[in-house]
Amino acid sequence: MKLRHLIGLLSIVLALPAMASDYPLSVRSCDRDVSFTKAPQRVVVHDVNMTAMLLHLGLRERIIGYTGFTRSKHRDPWIDQALEGVPQLASRYPSIETLLAADTQLFFAGWNYGMHVGGPVTPATLAPFDIPVYELSESCSWVMSQPRASVDDVYRDLANLGRIFSVEPQAQMLVAQMRARIDQVRGAVAQVRQPRVFLYDSGEERPTTSGRLGMPQALIDAAGGQNVMADVTASWTQVNWESVVERDPEVIVIVDYGPRSWQEKRDFLLRQAALKDVRAIRDQRFIVLTYLQVTPSVENALAIEKLASALHPELWQGARP
After folding, report:
1. What is the pLDDT of residue 77?
2. Above 60 in pLDDT, residue 14?
3. Global confidence as pTM
4. Model confidence over 130-166: pLDDT tens digits?
5. What is the CATH number of domain 3-176?
6. Which of 41, 189, 257, 285 could form a disulfide linkage to 291, CB 3.0–4.6 angstroms apart?
7. pLDDT score, position 71
8. Domain 192-316: CATH superfamily, name plus number
9. Where along the chain do its domains lie?
């Protein structure tokens, strides 16, 4: 990071007020207001990205259980170390009974991140048991109209969590750090040509990718690329291989998670005869990001830096921005 950005960030951090939240308070969660009379002391969190947010905010002691991820899903040993002694309450989605048994004071989850529309665990089904839910902002597109995913979704979540848990200075500092890093990249790539990018999550019969409502859209935008599936009004979704060929991506982002390694996913793509004329396959231009980096998280700043340096290596002269 350049000196002027460090100085700017330092001035922001020094200006942060040492405030505590005033209760009762309400925060906006998707299309609802969620109220708190005090800071939750017992939170159950779903998925690795939301868990990482709480850890970055210094809330490890408030996490009494997590759900929805295993080591085969993520490649982030620091999270395993931080969660040592914290029980995994469910390998997939939790039940109401699981959350009740844990004496949960807050469930931090999202739509298709721990909850399904019409499923057994939702804000509405947990309300009679006095278990509030804070919903991941990026996931709100499943229950309300959203124009396009944005890193502002992550900033909003961090700010709201800061208020909920009365750790606003920590939240503001994280947001300031992310903004400084991402704004530096945005400035560097503002005038460059945007390469066509396809994100490959998984899938053989049909690939799973992200349309304009998923966080990868925001990452590719900020890094100076164009998501070839930006016209798909969906978050994480499946498409046809034919649509990938038609859009001829110049670069393919591979998500490194799940039982198959990123190398196995790359080799699968290289073996597909239908993809042989796709420019990214011909040039073997692949970028590897972890699940944590491509889902809404503090690590989105690193993802944008990695994407930008790979999409526009001429700007960085061999070094990341």
Report:
1. 87
2. no
3. 0.91
4. 999 999 999 999 999 988 999 999 999 999 999 999 9
5. 3.40.50.1980
6. 257
7. 67
8. Nitrogenase molybdenum iron protein domain (3.40.50.1980)
9. 3-176, 192-316
Residue written as token pair 């599936």:
229
Q: What is the Cα 9 distance to its own chain's centre?
A: 23
Place of tokens 């409502």: 213
Q: In sequence order, what are the beta bridge partners of 28? A: 33
Mean pLDDT over 243-263 rounds to 95
Top pLDDT among 18 and 102 is at 102
Pairing of the two strands 236-238 and 208-210: antiparallel
Residue 69 pLDDT exceeds 90: no
